[in-house]
Amino acid sequence: MKENGSAEKVVTPMLFPFEPDQFWELMRQLIREEVSHIEKQKPDNSAFETAGMTYKPLYKIAEVCSLFHVSKPTIYKWIKHGKLKPYKIRSRVYFF
């Protein structure tokens, strides 16, 4: 502050030579490009791989847990409440 009580205008130095709108548009474009690049590199894991099978109708409990990002106890609760129906083949349990 000056001695007469008026405030001085403080100038903040620019760290990069862009207007804020330009900067954010550039950031959005870079993010879009990076996401697009990552999606192209990521393999499609929509179905779990089983040698010799192109279509897998049955999933093991571990695969169902991975698909839904839940734990085994959650799967057991879903079975108990009728949300999932298990199919037993010999001593193994599978899900559609």
Radius of gyration: 28 Å
Q: Largest sheet, described in full?
A: 2 strands, antiparallel
Biggest sheet strand order reads 1-2
Residues in helices, as a percent range: 40-55%
End-to-end C-alpha gap: 74 Å
What overall geometry do the principal axes of the alpha carbons give? Answer: elongated
Order of helices and strands: HHHEE
Structure classification:
mainly alpha
Mean pLDDT: 80
Low-confidence stretches: none
Please describe the structure with a list of short key phrases separated by commas or semicolons:
3 helices, 8% strand, mainly alpha, single chain
Can you offer a commentary on this structure?
There is one protein chain. With 96 residues, the protein is mainly alpha-helical. The protein has a domain of 35 residues. Helices cover 41% and strands 8% of the residues. The protein has a two-stranded antiparallel ribbon.
Provide a concise account of the structure shown:
With 96 residues, this protein is mostly helical.
